[in-house]
Amino acid sequence: MKSMTRKPSAAHPFKPRAALRLCFGGALAGMTVTVWAQTEPAAPAPASATAAPATATEQAVAELPSIIVVGTTPLLGVGTPLEKVPANVQTIRGRDIEAQHSQTISDYFANNVVSVDTNDAQGNGSQVDINYRGFTASPLLGTPQGLSVFLDGVRINEPFGDVVNWDLIPQAAINTIQIVPGSNPTFGLNTLGGAVVVSTKNGRANPGGNAEVSFGSFGRKTAQIEQGGVIGSNLDYYFTANVTNDNGWADHNSSQLRQAFGKLRYTDADTTISLSMGGADNKLNGSQTIPTSFLDNRRQAYTFPDTNENQVGYLTLSADHYFTPNIQLSGNLYYRHYRNVNTSSNVNDDFGEVEDDGDIDMIQATNDQSVIVTDSYGGSLQLTLLNKLFGRDNQLVLGAAGDFANSHFTQASQNAFFTDSRATVGIGGFNPTTDAKTRNENWGIYFENTLSFTEQWSMTLAGRYNWSKAVIGDESGVQPLLDGNHTFSRFNPAIGFNWNPTSYFTAYATYNEGMRSPTAIELACADPAAPCSLPNDFIADPNLQPVISKTFEVGARGHIGNATTWSAAVYSTTLDNDIQFVSSEGAASTLGFFQNVGKTRRQGLELAGRTQYGPVGIAASYSYVNATYRSTWTESSASNSSADGDGNITVHSGDRIPGIPANTFKLRLDYAPMPKWNIGTNITYRSSIFARGDEDNQDVNGTVAGYFLIDLDTTYNVTKQLQVFATVKNLLDKRYSTFAILGENFFNGPNHTFNGADTTNEQFLGLGAPRGVWVGLRYAWK
Questions:
Q1: 551-561: per-residue pLDDT in tens?
Q2: What digits encode the pLDDT tens for the residues 387-437?
Q3: What is the signed CA dihedral for 124, 137, 666, 607, rounded to 10 degrees?
Q4: What is the phi-psi region of residue 321: left when phi exceeds 0, alpha when psi lies from -120 to 50, beta otherwise?
Q5: Residue pair 157/281 in contact by the 8 Å Cβ criterion
Q6: Is residue 412 within 8 Å of 369, Cβ to Cβ?
Q7: pLDDT (tens digit, 9 = 90+) per residue, 431-462?
Q8: In 3D, which of 308, 208, 197 has the Cα closest to residue 257?
Q9: Rounded to whole angstroms, how far apart are CA atoms 622 and 468?
Q10: What percent of the chain stands above pLDDT 70?
Q11: Is 468 within 8 Å of 514 (Cβ atoms)?
Q12: pLDDT digit string (tens) for 299-351?
């Protein structure tokens, strides 16, 4: 890690409250800047910082302790001291993920991050939905997205559908992840409930290398290599690559992941330039949800195959420069190529229906194949000014961003029949159904200003103007209704106050607003008279209104002594014009349309604390989320027992939103019986949820039961270079479900074979994995 010290001058006298520890992400990840102060006494350091001893010099200069810095804008720049951030920000270090040997990022989130839970609707652990405070970042097209995700300052919500493919993030390369709650407008579109900001490692802060292998349950085998270092005095490099093969715990949910990432940086006293590139080539098979009548064999799939192939390649150029110690300019340019091929097996929704010619449709199944190819590019520029305003310390950030994407979407469908094992066998070839191109343009101009009224009080004002355009064009020549041009714009404000009566306590209050513009897939599937197949068919594009979020949050955080930290927050986020997918033939059907459904609200409470007693570390959190509809609307959900004769249900204000648990408790225990050995456990409880399709909370099946899980991990350092580790997931081998949806089961024949003439309405469950054990070795070198 490079350390720089800047001493005061007559032109730039530093004050104690201006002391910053600059934990830069992206191009500056890992750099530490030690700020010097005049002879005024320094405030005590936070619990997470180590105070530097004062040294007398001829100029009577004292070095101040480090202060944790948070990135509250897409480009971190100088960052904001945590004591002046009006939000309950959570910071995850890459080494924390490594220490628990988490198999996926979502796995670590589910076990450790406050107010986070996961839904496994796809039946594959690498493509789960992450829910934070009731808002979702999902890889599934058509899921209403409520979180923005950034990798080194680049937004990685895919432009076509705003989906987040967690399997494409290079896990080994993660330096930090910051979870920024609320509708912070500076992060731009899709920041309804929060932003996930990922920064990657660099070679100066991570010299040396390591190689790691692991294997265990369900045929899972991984291999990974990592290397970083310094070339001369100004260059450093970092590289990592990994391979994972996993047979899957259930039938037909195997995974193959290939990832690589590299970074080359130049740094001097005032400038950092970083060039990073990465790629992934993953093949993920899913077992889908299964009806409750299938629970005699929890490993079986409802139908198959269902395959998601994700490929990505990206290049990012980042730079920042200090013109003076108080003026910094940062920016980036990026290019990203993404390709997704989705092959899915489905029951024919029209089976048994009378066709126009009077014949009865006896086609049992369809195979759908969609291809999305997206080229996205753009850039950001941000200026940070540390100055005085009315004689008070002030930090002003001005930024602008432009993001552009061209996507080509094609879909083809094939008639099929089911084998006795419920595999689909195609009849004839694939027939094209959709051929569309989309163009996305997003512009944003933002500012953030933090003014310190006194040593104890500060105020943050922020805002962003977003302008978004989506152009949809039919390439087939047979779907002219698909053509459309939609523009959305809005200014979103934020204001927050912080009170720091002592260095051990911070209280804050904030209000902010955010915006999500409808995606191309939502706009092209918004006509109730022409329902389309989720997530694939496009039909027509009536206008949808943008979703507007308004968040209030009040909280406090602090530390007791040098070993204990705590935080508490109460929040409420209301969405206007929320968008939902409204099924035309029941909740489990892929046929339907998107519509604005009025207001929804997520409000809740979160508490967290961590302490260390000698060799024992304890971290615990509790979160309560009350996610409800605040408007009345009608939905087609024929599989809901409360549906009327037309298969409709009425959703009322106050009904809970499905899939979001009210209560979540997490406990992490670490015990080091000796310096070389650590034993850890994660204990997680999640309360019950309503099934999708039960938006009125009246279905006879009721809620899906909550669950209680225990995971174990242990690490032993045989030598300074050699480490052995082991993990156990779901120690008690609990049977549990993370997701549910109401649907029609077509497989009531002998041994669950197809019987379209005798269907039943059931609850379909996304099942959790059984107990699994893995062991591994890591060898490190300098």
A1: 999 999 999 99
A2: 998 889 999 999 999 999 999 999 899 999 999 999 999 998 999 988 889
A3: 180
A4: beta
A5: no
A6: yes
A7: 998 888 999 999 999 999 999 999 999 999 99
A8: 308
A9: 37
A10: 87
A11: no
A12: 999 999 999 999 999 999 999 999 999 999 999 999 999 999 999 998 987 88
Burial of 46 (0-12, 13-18, 19+ CB in 10 A): buried
Confirm if 673 and 714 have CB atoms less than 8 A apart.
no
Question: What 3-state class would DSSP assign to 381?
Answer: strand
Amino acid, res. 211: A
Amino acid in position 614:
G
Is the preceding peptide bond at 493 cis, omega within 30 degrees of 0?
no
Q: CA neighbours within 13 Å on the CB side: how many for 206?
A: 27
Query: In sequence order, what are the residues at sequence separation of 6 or more whose Cβ sits closer than 8 angstroms to the Cβ of residue 23?
Result: 29, 30, 32, 68, 69, 79, 176
Write out the H or E segment, with its range, that includes residue 108: helix 105-112
Q: What are phi and psi of 584, to 5 degrees?
A: -95, -20
Angle at 617 between CA 614 and CA 623, to 5 degrees: 150
List phi, psi (to 5°) of 26: 60, -125
Nearest to 381 by CA among 404, 396, 395, 399: 399
Q: What's the confidence (pLDDT) of residue 20?
A: 34
The single residue listed with the structure tokens 């990206």 is 314
CATH number for 80-733+750-781: choose from 3.40.50.620, 3.40.630.30, 2.40.170.20, 1.20.210.10: 2.40.170.20
List of E strands, 644-771: 648-651, 663-674, 677-686, 707-717, 722-729, 737-745, 760-767
Host H or E run for residue 29: none
Question: How much is the pLDDT for 775?
Answer: 98
- For the four alpha carbons of 563, 181, 91 and 243, in that order, the dihedral sign comes to positive
Which tokens belong to 401? 């961003």
Structure-block tokens of residue 464: 């962003």
Q: State how far the Cα of 239 lies from the Cα of 262, in Å rounded to an integer.
A: 4
Q: Is 772:216 a contact under the CB 8 Å cutoff?
A: yes
Q: Taking all residues of the chain, what is their mean pLDDT, rounded to a whole number?
A: 87
What string of H, E and C letters represents the secondary structure of 188-206?
A: CCCCCCEEEEEEECCCCCC
Cα–Cα distance measured from residue 138 to residue 280, given in angstroms and rounded to the nearest whole number: 18
SS3 83: helix
Across the range 523-551, mean pLDDT stands at: 63
Written as six digits, the tokens of 253 are: 């949910």
From residue 688, give the alpha-carbon distance in Å to each of 272, 395, 700, 739.
Answer: 49, 45, 15, 10
Q: Whose CA is closest to 226, among 780, 719, 774, 725?
A: 780
Q: Please tell me whether residue 208 adopts helix, strand or coil conformation.
A: strand
Residue type, 474: D
**pLDDT single digits (tens) 657-704:** 999 999 999 999 999 999 999 999 999 999 999 999 999 999 999 999
Question: What phi and psi values does residue 110 have, to the nearest 5 degrees?
Answer: -65, -30
What residue segments make up the domains of the chain, in order of their start? 80-733+750-781
pLDDT at position 544: 77
